[in-house]
Here is the input.
Amino acid sequence: MTDTVAWRGWLLDPAPASRRQARLGRWYRSWVAFRRNGLAMTGLVIVLALALTAVIAPLIADPATANLQVLEDRLQPWSVAHWLGTDELGRDILVRILFGARITLTIVALVSLIVVPIGLGIGLPAGYFGGWIDAVLMRITDIFLSFPRLVLALAFAAALGPGIENAVIAISLTTWPPYARLARAETLTRRRAEFIEAAELQGASHLRILLTQIMPLCLPSVIIRLTLDMAGIILTAAGLGFLGLGAQPPAAEWGAMVSSGRQVLLDQWWVATIPGIAIFITSLGFNLLGDGLRDVADSRSA
Amino acid sequence: MTVAVDAATRTDGWARRSAGPLRHAAKILLSVALTFLGLTCVTFFIGRVIPIDPVLAIVGDKASLETYNRVKIEIGLDQPIPVQYWRFLGKVMQGDFGNSVITARPVLEDLLRVFPATIELSMFALIIGVVLGIPLGVIAATHRGRWQDQVIRFGSLLGYSMPVFWLGLVGLLAFYAKLGWVEGPGRLDVGFDDIVPTLTGLITIDSLIEGDSDVFWNSVSHLVLPSSILGYLSLAYVARMTRSFMLGQLKQEYILATLAKGLSPFRVVWVHALGNVWVQLVTVIALTFGSLLEGAVLTETVFAWPGLGLYMKNSLFNADLNAVLGGTMLVGVVYIGLNMLSDLLYPLVDPRAREQR
Here is the structure.
């Protein structure tokens, strides 16, 4: 008990002794503010549960059962053996949903890994150098920003062929522009700051200033934006899957599962609706989490 | 819906920081032209990276090398890429997207035939979203932090998080299959097809012009479920943006001043504060309409609605690239048009923007 009190005291110390203590203290205060927001905590729990599911799915169920077809058991309602019933090929819906979490999380992670570097790579130089570099980079960004996301993803999928990698590429291509704008805006507000000038006087190169001075300050807002975008990414990916352009059968992708359940919607409604609930809960979780993070960030800046 | 999230960041676009009215218009036009060029570039690029050899698609794989080379020259694939792009651009400017492989008709003709169905669906959805979304957003703002605000915020958060295709299926299951309140997929019952001549392509309007109430009510009954579902999604966005814009206004001092002068709170909120918010809402509404066109792709698939989305989806699975790219261009052009419209409307609804220019 006394240990935790001591830790709290150290974290909330108004005069931190080291940079690390100050930073950890700031994080702790944000966490305390975040923890008070019930909806945001719900979101965090959902997202963590999703990640946990994705990691331990092979421990709960044998990967082979996700695609195991037992035609005698097809279209069963829920039972002790199949908690959420079975689909039109006799596959266990619960197991498929568990493994579907891996696909969803993979898509989300890959899109983030592509989108953030591109956004920063375009936005930071645009805001830092200004002038014609800014004009050119921002025009390119505007062009991509004015594209309808799902339709462009559709066209890409049509050209590259359906598949999860191409879905990721298509979604990334239409997701990065807001990050470039965000990074540029954040850079502009810091461009004339004195600590930049100090770094310049010490002889730091442009690249060094961008990477060590400006980029770390852009990251928080980029991460918040990313969390808020996750839901949209998940919905677009599921939409592509539903149209048959995402992960290909027999992969247990949630959107594709809804699509295949359409055939039996009227008689065995659970086949199509239950994977949809998984999509819904996941995207709701990311939305709640993102909202909460934004509130914390806002209250800090205010 | 995600594209629409940038409404707030976009309103301070470079087109608006301008001096004279002519320069303002010229800048908007230049921006539109550049974006359009970008759209054609991307579409052209997509057409090029496709792994299918377009020559083989025409001549078949049994053709001799001579035929292959002849056709390659005929369709211009022997030219350098900039030349190919220039020709592509020339054709697009004339509205020539090539012929559809499935229907064997010009893609533009097909697009114009299916587009009204999508417009009808999105228009109704937009009306639902705006008529309900704006008042809900205002109420949420005036009751900030109280239960009304919580309910509206959570309701729109749900709308944000729902996969539209799933909501469509659940809606069909509940209201069509179980309850029988509405008609099922399609725009009309089979017996009502082709009774009303096509004038606008919007069946509700066409049937009203003809005065055929049976067709009208049948089409409304088909329309109500898909447009409510799309409308809910746009409602979620419109209400959320209205709330945050209104919160910004209600903090202003003029609100206090008008209240102190004895104006009723109702008038202050719904006339004065909301009046100032309209400016930003125009952009939001324009972008919402754009995202509705997107949502239509999925909704149309679920409801077998013979619009642009279903047309593109079917073309896609028949490897009809001309049709897919044509559809992409059409949606892109509508998007650009909506952006331009909201840029041009801006000074009309905001006297400050008018004076500054």
About this structure: The radius of gyration of chain A is 23 Å. The mean pLDDT of chain A is 83. Chain A has 13 helices and no strands.
